[in-house]
Amino acid sequence: MQNQASAPTVLEALARALSAAGYGKPAGGQQAPDLSGERKFHSVAEVAGMFGISEMGIYRAIHAGKFPAVRVGLRRYFVPARAIEAMVDAAMTRGQMVDAADWAATPVPTAEGVA
């Protein structure tokens, strides 16, 4: 188990993903998303690339109610750009780790109940 000092934080992951004002390239060779405020939402694949984790990790967090997302239809999820920007702003203002779950209201409802 890593100690907290050596464990990467969300802020460090975002800093790497957003470095050099070019935002880097997400996994899979996709075009890096523009966080200038013009885009309202990001795909799960884009967010996974920003955070340097798998898409499945983002989906799991969304379904557990620990990551903010908007569901469109039965299986499509999009992450509000403002939620990511708010997380970055809070981490920079506080100078410490923030929890994405603070920006997620509730677990994702399904036909059977809550996922």
Question: How are the elements arranged and paired?
Answer:
Layout: H1 10-17, E1 41-43, H2 44-51, H3 55-63, E2 70-72, E3 76-80, H4 81-94, E4 109-110, E5 113-114
Antiparallel strand pairs: 1-3, 2-3, 4-5
Helix pairs in contact: 2-3
Structural commentary:
Strands 1-3-2 form a 3-stranded antiparallel beta sheet. Residues 1-7 and 20-25 have low confidence and may be disordered. The protein contains 4 helices and 5 strands. The chain is 34% helix and 13% strand. With 115 residues, it is an alpha+beta fold. Helix 2 (44-51) packs across helix 3. The chain has one domain (10-31, 38-103).
Top keywords for this entry?
3-stranded antiparallel beta sheet, 115 residues, two-stranded antiparallel sheet, globular, 5 strands, alpha+beta, 13% strand
| pLDDT averaged over residues | 74
Structural class: alpha+beta
Shape, principal axes of CA atoms: globular
Any low-confidence stretches, pLDDT <50, length ≥5? Answer: 1-7, 20-25
User: Strand portion, in percent?
Assistant: 5-15%
- N-to-C SSE string, H for helix and E for strand: HEHHEEHEE
End-to-end gap? 29 Å
Total beta-strand segments:
5
Strand order of the largest sheet: 1-3-2
Helix share of residues? 25-40%
Largest sheet: 3 strands, antiparallel
The value of Rg in angstroms is 14 Å
Number of domains: 1
Number of helices: 4
Domain Helix-turn-helix: 43-89
Protein name: Helix-turn-helix transcriptional regulator
InterPro entries: HTH_17
Q: What's the gist of this structure?
A:
By secondary structure, the protein is α+β, with helices and mostly antiparallel strands. It has helices at residues 10-17, 44-51, 55-63, 81-94; strands at 41-43, 70-72, 76-80, 109-110, 113-114. Residues 43-89 form the Helix-turn-helix domain.
